[in-house]
Design goal:
The complex is a heterotrimer of chains A (406), B (162) and C (634). Chain A is an alpha/beta fold. Helix content of chain A is 23%, strand content 31%. Chain B is globular and about 60 Å long. The chains are: A alpha/beta (406), B alpha+beta (162), C alpha/beta (634).
Chain lengths: 406, 162, 634
């Protein structure tokens, strides 16, 4: 029996741990096209501002050693499920008995006039971060397209270097769907105070160049000067290489509740997956760091003999510190449909919002005071109903663990 | 592994454990110096209550720790005694651990911008909270010994009923 | 646990901004409270401490000096009695000083109002009245009162001349006769400090002595207040937040001493001030409302309506309609200042010993009382101009309340039934069982139970069992706010026997219905009025108070004053119910003494019972025992 894993990110690592707890001896091979292969991806913005080095953000242990994994460097170009083989770009083929596709996602590069050429970057890998760090030395003005977490974190890193940063977000407010209008306003205020300009409700229609160098961006209704552009406009699953194989995919790889794909013994986990959302059942793609480890664990367990169900993706599950304000949001944050009960309370920069579907928490958001957030996360993910006094305490944020102690 | 066992029926809610924890994690390590420190030291356990019981809620150093699994910087790790601890210099204050701890026992240090949690007083033989408890509501037990004692109790009851 | 049974309080709390913290949020934040404190097993009387005793037996069983749980708990509760006695003493001596100033012409704003009461008190305490100028009599009475506070060789006059002979004998027997009010307080502080009294029974007897001193202080305060401000007679007024008026300048009188509140009431009707209020935009002039005991004082004498009681004192400000809250001392939460800062309300402190940081202080001077009062009212009118009408949210909730049942008024009402022997109808009905017994509700409102829940549950049980209900302090406030001080309440809740009696007296008094279900006897110092009634009945029947089917209930106690009053009620021979656990339960010795041991000595004892229905049953059971012992129908 041999296990083959494509990818070396959070889902892959979590899968390896799960496989090893079921099968200490089975052969595990891992294919990655990244070097270094194992690192804490969310830390790459810190390479840009120089507060961390590549060495600093490598995993603090070596999975190859700890979990006895064979590492293969290469890029997968196709999967042949009949022969149970995987082909790499350098013509090598590797065989498998169980396969996990955890190939992650890549930044979307929108079709915009002028976007091709020097001076335009995305941020996904250490390599990207190093390129950005080098180029921004000569770029006093940087435009960041996209007001999601990647856009904000890269902006926060750039201003450390004294660079003037402008974020351009096409939606009316930043951080959708993890923030709502009010929390976005609170966080934007902090970002602006730190010197980051934020433009919302504008689309980039063209990147203007002069003699090949970026000069600025044309938006729906205004212009912005810039020497460099970082595109942080979302990610799409790395599933294209499956074209022609029997593994079905739509936006992402289609899986069942055991994270098995349309092909037996082939599983998928992480950003590359398309599945249903935990609460609403709507179709969604992975796309969040925090969804990946759980999927990896489920896939890995099921590959190695367990039968574990994956309950579903969360549209938001994010924690960060944005220019000094703590921010945590989990689940469904905005309710356009009026389907959920929404309770919110704001006192200056402290804002909390909790959404209930009947007696179950379907989403919550906290800025400022994030104490005991994990209690809500747990209630939400495990769909635990709370009523009466507990619900009141959840709404007033006086809920403590002892309420659940047996 | 030594675990801290809580006997809620013994808890007086006096919070001596909270004070001792904060003092142990202060610079001066005495109450007097600790209360004068700025910023003040932080406690890592929390005496909570319902109408029926009161007891300190503290980090369990879970075997399958959500915080450890979720940490995006490699700050949280398990030491050789099995305790989940921090490599403080690696913490970037992303608060993912706070987002996932089901007990709500990880806190945010607003001054240092890092996460704070129980380290089981790894430098001491007996954790500060256990030493401080005046009614022995907190006791240090070896899990295997405890479970064995429990089994013996069950068996004796069976024999008596017998 | 809900916060309050009072819908006006709930309304005010729901209307407030979430970030405003009231006593209820602060209580939640304190949970869990320290068990050592709760059980009385903590001592901080010396710097070798603090010490605590482990109630579970494993840790230390004695403090560093060797004091065991009995000594710790006894010392703790005795200091509470001392603090209570000091409070009532402070209140009483303040009035005594003023009476003296009145007699010597230094306090022209405090004339003698009730000459008959002055003479009655004078005669009782051995001051001659025949052919003497009123001011001279008043001066002597004041001086005699002031003598009560310090070192004398003789027993306290106000106690000796008001209790039964049986009580005097009992007090002498157990060595608890105080000779000075302040010296009794001082003695408790002495005997409970490091290395003095270490015998729980002895310590507690010292507390009883101090409690009797407290009783004395209360009686002085009641008597002298009646002399200066008039003895209360029945009045009909209103209670609850709905008494606030959005078209008037609302001034809340909070605290205890009528020396302040009575003057404000008198001055508030002055034309110039009413005109000022109207020019400021208050079309209905000035509206005075009361909170806590001073509220009771002016309600009893001047029909001033009661806005709310102690635990809910902050809700008055939350209505956004209180322009000034004028306070003197005791039971005033320091939080009112920070809450007032979120509104236009001005908190005005008036006493040198009782200031609140950031609150406005207008020191009240007895020599120029009315002028001080005018200044205070003018401040309120100024504050009114800054009222934010968007924040005004007065719940439209208030109840009618019949008040003013001083002991004199009760005797007067009874004399309408039997003019020659007014006590006879009362006693006949007790003997016949129409009045099964009497229960005096005294004390506070605590955050530890749903506000008023205990009072409401107990009065219904007791009244339906024909128990005559007397009330003082915030217990009165509770009953007033919930409509129990009305003839309608008698019709609805009284048992047939009780109803018949109250109807008869009501008819004779011409009020067009029965007397109210609860007879409001006044403020907390006015518990002395209830004591007078018990003494009168005891003397008439020729037995001591500990034989009578009379009980007391502090169903929601809070203050050290309540501990002091409860202790003298026990010393007087009354079984006294406490609705929450007192901080002595960590010592079985002290608990036994207070709930059983004292019974053998004084006939009275404490009954600790948090469940109001069980408490009612127990009290009725006690009355039954006593009736049987007297040979009455049980």
């Amino acid at each position: 029996m041999s296990m083959l894993i494509i990818g070396s990110g959070a889902a892959a690592l979590s899968a390896i741990k799960a496989i090893r707890s079921n099968e200490p001896e089975v052969k595990i091979r891992l294919i990655t096209n990244e070097d270094p292969p194992f690192y804490y991806r969310p830390m790459i913005p810190l390479i840009i501002d120089g507060s961390r080095t590549t060495e600093d953000i490598k995993l603090t242990f070596d999975p190859v050693e700890r979990f006895d994994v064979e590492l293969v460097h290469g890029t997968v170009v196709t999967i042949n499920s009949d022969s149970r083989t995987v082909s790499l770009s350098d013509s090598r083929t590797l065989s498998y008995e169980k396969l996990l596709i955890a190939s992650g996602s890549s930044p979307v590069m929108p079709e915009i006039e002028g976007i091709k050429g020097e001076g335009v970057f995305t941020l996904r890998t250490i390599e990207d971060a190093l390129k950005i760090r080098a180029y921004c030395e000569n770029s006093p003005k940087v435009a960041v397209v996209g007001g999601g977490f990647v856009g904000i974190k890269v902006s926060a890193a750039l201003i450390q270097k004294g660079i003037k940063v402008t974020i351009i977000e096409q939606l009316p407010f930043i951080l959708y769907p993890c923030a709502d209008r009010i929390s976005a306003e609170i966080l934007s205020a902090r970002l602006k105070k730190a010197g980051i300009e934020i433009i919302t409700g504008e689309r980039v229609t063209a990147i203007c160049r002069d003699k090949g160098r970026v000069k600025g961006l044309r938006l729906s209704s205004k212009k912005v000067d810039a020497d460099m552009v970082i595109v942080a406009a979302g990610v799409k699953p790395n599933a294209e290489f499956l074209d022609g194989s029997s593994v079905r995919f739509d936006r992402g790889i289609l899986v069942d509740e055991y994270l098995q794909t349309s092909v037996a013994d082939v599983y998928a986990a992480g950003d590359v997956v398309q599945y249903k959302e935990l609460i609403t059942g709507a179709t969604a793609v992975g796309a969040l760091w925090c969804n990946a480890p759980e999927m990896g664990k489920v896939a890995g367990s099921n590959m190695s003999g367990s039968k574990v169900l994956y309950e579903g993706l969360l549209p938001a599950m994010h924690a960060s510190d944005i220019e000094g304000i703590a921010f945590i949001s989990v689940g469904i944050i905005d309710d356009e449909s009026g389907e959920y009960e929404v309770y919110s309370y704001r006192d200056g920069e402290n804002y909390r919002k909790i959404l209930f579907g009947g007696e179950r928490i379907v989403g919550f958001l906290l800025t400022g005071d994030i104490s005991r957030a994990g209690i809500f996360t747990n209630l939400l993910k495990n769909r635990i109903p709370i009523g009466g006094k507990l619900k009141d305490e959840a709404i007033n944020k006086t809920l403590h663990y002892i309420r659940f102690h047996k | 592994m030594n675990q801290i066992f809580v006997r809620p029926e013994r808890c007086m809610g006096c919070k001596s454990c909270e004070i001792a924890c904060a003092v142990q994690h202060s610079k001066g390590k005495t109450l007097l110096s600790a209360i004068l420190e700025s910023p003040p030291p932080m406690k890592r356990l929390f005496v909570e209550s319902t109408e029926q019981i009161r007891m300190p809620v503290m980090c369990r150093h879970c075997e399958d720790a959500p915080c450890l699994n979720a940490c995006i910087t490699g700050c949280l790790y398990r030491d050789d005694k099995g305790f989940v601890r921090r490599k403080k210099e690696r913490c970037i204050g992303c608060w993912t651990c706070i987002m996932v701890c089901p007990f709500g026992v990880i806190s945010r240090d607003k001054n240092k911008h890092i996460a704070v949690k129980c380290d089981r007083c790894h430098k001491l033989d007996v954790p500060a909270c256990v030493s401080a408890c005046p009614t022995k509501a907190l006791v240090l037990v070896d899990i295997d010994t405890l479970t064995k004692e429990r089994r013996m109790q069950v068996i004796s009851k069976e024999i008596e009923a017998g | 646990m809900g916060r309050s049974k009072d819908s006006a309080v709930v309304f005010a709390l729901n209307a407030k901004e979430l970030k405003l913290k009231t006593v209820w949020e602060r209580f939640e934040a304190q949970l869990p409270q320290c068990g050592f404190g709760e059980t009385g097993l903590c001592c901080r009387h010396c710097m070798q401490g603090p010490c605590r005793i482990d109630p579970f037996g494993e840790g230390p069983q004695v403090g560093i000096c060797g004091a065991n749980a009995g000594v710790m708990a006894a010392r703790g509760i005795s200091r509470a009695v001392a603090a209570g006695a000091a409070s009532h003493s402070g209140h009483a001596k303040h009035i005594a000083h003023t009476l003296l100033k009145s007699a010597t012409g230094e306090a022209p704003d405090y004339p003698i109002k009730d000459v008959a009461k002055l003479k009655a008190v004078a005669m009782r305490i051995g001051v001659s009245v025949d052919n003497r100028d009123i001011k001279e009599i008043a001066g002597d009475v004041a001086r005699k009162a002031l003598e009560e506070f310090s070192e004398k060789e003789s027993p306290l006059t106000w106690a000796a001349t008001t209790v039964t002979k049986g009580r005097i004998d009992t007090f002498l027997k157990y060595g608890v006769v105080p000779t000075g009010i302040d010296s009794a307080v001082s003695e408790v502080m002495h005997r409970t400090t490091y290395g003095v009294d270490a015998d729980p029974v002895n310590i507690l007897l010292g507390a009883v002595k101090c409690a009797i001193a407290d009783y004395t202080g209360c009686h002085i305060a009641t008597d002298l207040s009646d002399i200066l401000f008039g003895t209360p007679n029945p009045v009909i007024t209103k209670a609850n937040l709905g008494v606030l008026n959005k078209n008037a300048v609302n001034i809340a009188l909070h605290g205890h001493n009528p020396l302040l509140s009575d003057i404000i009431v008198q001055v508030s009707s002055e034309r110039e001030l009413t005109e000022k209020a109207k020019s400021a935009g208050a079309s209905e002039g000035i509206n005075l409302v009361g909170i806590c005991c001073t509220g009771n004082e002016v309600m009893m004498r001047h029909k001033i309506p009661l806005a709310t009681s102690s635990v809910s004192q902050e809700t008055a400000i939350l209505t956004g309609a209180v322009d000034a809250m004028v306070v003197d001392y005791q039971c005033i939460m320091p939080s009112i200042q920070s809450i007032a800062e979120c509104y236009h309300t001005k908190v005005i402190t008036t006493m040198p010993i009782s200031r609140i940081s950031n609150a406005m202080h207008i020191e009240f001077e007895e020599s120029n009382a009315k002028e001080s009062a005018r200044k205070i009212i003018e401040t309120a009118i100024e504050a009114f101009k800054k009222r934010d009408s968007n924040k005004v949210n007065i719940p439209n909730i208030s109840s009618t309340a019949f008040a003013g049942f001083s002991q004199d008024a009760i005797i007067k009402a009874l004399s309408l039934v039997n003019s020659e022997d007014p006590l006879k109808p009362l006693i006949d009905n007790i003997i016949a069982g129409n009045i099964y017994g009497v229960c005096l509700f005294a004390g506070c409102n605590t955050v530890k139970v749903t506000q008023d829940a205990n009072y409401i549950a107990m009065i219904k049980e007791l009244a339906k069992n024909n128990v005559l209900i007397l009330a003082t302090g915030c217990a009165s406030g509770s009953f007033a706010r919930h409509g129990f001080m009305t003839p309608e309440a008698t019709e609805e809740y009284a048992g047939d026997g009780l109803k018949a009696v109250l109807r008869a007296v009501g008819k004779a008094a011409g009020i067009g219905g029965p007397l109210p279900l609860v007879l409001h006897m006044g403020s907390c110092v006015d518990n002395s009025r209830a004591a007078d009634v018990a003494v009168a009945v005891a003397n008439k029947l020729g037995v001591d108070i500990d034989m009578l089917p009379i009980v007391a209930s502090a169903a929601e106690p809070v203050t050290e004053k309540a501990v002091a009053i409860g202790t003298w009620a026990v010393a007087a021979g009354l079984p006294t119910h406490l609705g929450i656990m007192p901080p002595v339960v960590g010592s079985s010795t002290v608990t036994n003494i207070l709930t059983a041991g004292v019974k053998d000595m004084f006939g009275g004892y404490f009954i600790v019972e948090p469940d109001p229905i069980k408490a009612s049953e127990t009290l009725i059971g006690v009355m039954k025992q006593r009736r049987k012992a007297l040979g009455l129908s049980a």
